[in-house]
Design a protein that fits this description.
The protein has 220 residues and is α/β, with parallel strands linked by helices. It is built from six helices and eleven strands. Helix 2 links the parallel strand 4 and strand 5.
Length: 220
């Protein structure tokens, strides 16, 4: 029996570093609409929802309202220090007819429907309990303590970057999990965790104006 998949996109008003961040323009359209345009043709997602405390953010998606529903999130889940798990739980209490949740953050504009479909397919095929989007890094990593030390190489025997051990960086684009597991663990990541690798560009999450300008240049 085919599992029913929902995509939940949490957005809120009151962003601190960039005012009205979800409405800033990427390629002359609001960020939230840009994201919707990139994902709406997913073949694996049955229903899309924007969870917001501000109907104006939802209205900014224009024609995509025909395919994306509005979920009114509470004030509790819309504060700057509220964990995302709060809005996920709110959503699931009122929408319990889904098996798999794709939790997609609108701060990463490098998403597209192919990424989502391939990730959902991998999630099901590999029997993961949860999955997160990542970017691969082969950088020379250091930890900053009183005396700085390397993490993934010995500077006395420096290797070529091609053979250095690679790491995955959480890029904050999306997370996939089963509803029943989330309700048990109250966390988007749990048990057998898988990864889905995206392009290097996707390492940029729009958190401040520098991120915004970099994203605009790359997405022209």
């Amino acid at each position: 029996m085919k599992k029913k998949v929902a995509c939940l996109i949490p957005v809120r008003s009151g962003s601190k570093r960039i005012k009205n961040k979800n409405l800033v323009k990427i390629n002359r359209i609001p960020l939230i609409k840009f994201i919707c345009k990139k994902i709406i043709n997913s073949r694996k997602i049955d229903q899309f929802f924007i969870a917001s405390d501000n109907i104006k953010i939802y209205q900014a998606i224009g024609k995509y309202k025909k395919k994306i529903d509005f979920f009114k999130r509470s004030k509790k889940s819309s504060t700057s220090n509220a964990k995302s798990e709060v809005v996920i739980e709110e959503f699931l209490k009122k929408n319990d007819d889904f098996d798999i949740i794709v939790f997609l953050q609108a701060t990463n504009p490098f998403i597209n429907s192919n990424y989502l479909d391939e990730a959902i397919l991998k999630f099901e095929k590999e029997n993961y309990d949860s999955l997160l989007s990542v970017t691969k890094s082969k950088s020379f990593l250091w930890k900053n303590k009183k005396f700085t030390k390397p993490i993934n190489y010995n500077f006395k025997r420096r290797k070529m970057s091609q053979v250095i051990k690679s790491y995955f960086i959480e890029n904050g684009s999306f997370y996939i999990f089963y509803k029943k597991n989330f309700l048990k663990f109250k966390n988007r990541l749990h048990k057998k965790i898988g990864t889905f690798e995206m392009s290097k560009n996707s390492m940029i999450e729009i958190d401040d104006f520098q991120d915004l300008e970099m994203a605009r240049k790359l997405l022209k």
